[in-house]
Amino acid sequence: FAARLPPSPAHRLVAAAAGERLRHRRATMRPILLKGHERALTKVMYNKDGDLLFSASKDNKPTVWYADTGVRLGTFNGHQGTVWDLDVTHDSSRLLTASADATVRLWDVRTGRELANYTHRGPVRAVAWAEGGEYFATAAEPFGRYPGQVAVYYCPAGAEEYDLLPIEGRMFEIPPEVRAAQLVWLNNNKELLIAYDDGSLHILDAEFGEELQCFKYHTAKVMDLQFSVDKTMIITASYDTSAKLIDATTFEVLQTYQTDRPVNAAVVSPIREHVVIGGGQDAMSVT
Question: What is the pTM of this model?
């Protein structure tokens, strides 16, 4: 049993002031339309401070925007195919982009200059910085006789030259019957969580590639995979019309959010006990 204590006069004054600020904010809030991409979006993410917004799309031009105004700060030009994924360091200094042109590119966020080009054997679907920003991982699709693979790279800040090859011994083949769709780092960079297009989640040892655990919570491709801000929970979004909130330690499903259409994105609010999910059918699927 729990109950709220009756508010004191001081508390009532604070609550009234807070309510007035909220009403003013709601009255002055307006949606910001970001115009710049020419084709469908594939990824949108904030930097850690929340003042920059990064977007990727099928038009091959990753873009950075001022989050509070929607003004386009610049584009990162060089890819020759769809940009499927991107990730920015915690200090917002370096950006990684993963593309269907079989490259991952490293950019200086401030200048827009390309710092390195990491060539892969097939289209690259996912990329993620490790904690600390010295390592990153990629997930590439199979291409021809080459299998899909997950690879780990060493990429220290301030380097004058970058090693464009994966760390020796840290390239792991993906089973031929599936394709990697998303990935994130776990457990102080000791593990990788990879989502496959069959709806399964796999935890790999980040050094040796050994599979440690496997979970099958979805029946179709996992479209998005994100941590809560404190990294205690993970939320997934799937083409099977559901999103799931998962404990990041035990991997127990805490909540399932069922919809009537494919879920393309899901995020846990950093300031409220809310989750936001979004999605819809592809135009080609609508009759």
Answer: 0.79
